[in-house]
Amino acid sequence: xxxxxxxxxxxxxxxxxxxxxxxxxxxxxxxxxxxxxxxxxxxxxxxxxxxxxxxxxxxxxxxxxxxxxxxxxxxxxxxxxxxxxxxxxxxxxxxxxxxxxxxxxxxxxxxxxxxxxxxxxxxxxxxxxxxxxxxxxxxxxxxxxxxxxxxxxxxxxxxxxxxxxxxxxxxxxxxxxxxxxxxxxxxxxxxxxxxxxxxxxxxxxxxxxxxxxxxxxxxxxxxxxxxxxxxxxxxxxxxxxxxxxxxxxxxxxxxxxxxxxxxxxxxxxxxxxxxxxxxxxxxxxxxxxxxxxxxxxxx
Length: 299
Prior knowledge:
Mean pLDDT: 96
């Protein structure tokens, strides 16, 4: 069996096109332009690249992009004051503080100072609680992107066995909640799970979000299962030690031989994260203005 490749790049382009269409309609019919504020503290190179990409894509779909770049030694009080101003700014519908923050800043305190209605990352404790109890929330972008791709591929997920390998607050736990919300039977597994291979082999849907390069081999995959690989790991290139290559948390070659469908790395889950950030900003804008939410762009 050779797996169907779930093309996250193409799917993300489709999501961005839907967002752009809704944004154009909001402007025309209601005179409202959704606004996303991104806060970057310090000069982490990966974060800088990511923030640039977010800003570019925000503008491309017709939204307002507000970037706030702060020095690495910015005090907690100054950062919290900026967030307070953004919370009170009606032109800002989504606020994202780029992680990781410099070590002297308390990430939990900072994230929980964001207005939950503008928390487009879905990390605020209120949104975590709302998601966990099946209420309307802002949903973390990466798990939301995974859910969209699964719904698109399968239609209904009801009754399927899903295994999420990884228990992070950013991906593993919210992914499990979203799958439960779509009536899957969900197991959360991790590095200490006994006989992890046997647990994985029971999955109709296998989500790998453990952060270990190529940890999951093909013989851990149930024939015909759908494999969603959230991992992005940079390793030494096997054929050229002077170069690196990006790999996921599953061994793609062996898993693709067994799975029914699989996301590649790169080009799978990654592009969906920013697309869902834009979708969340649009959703937050509609909610703030008492307008109907766009269909198919949230959980």
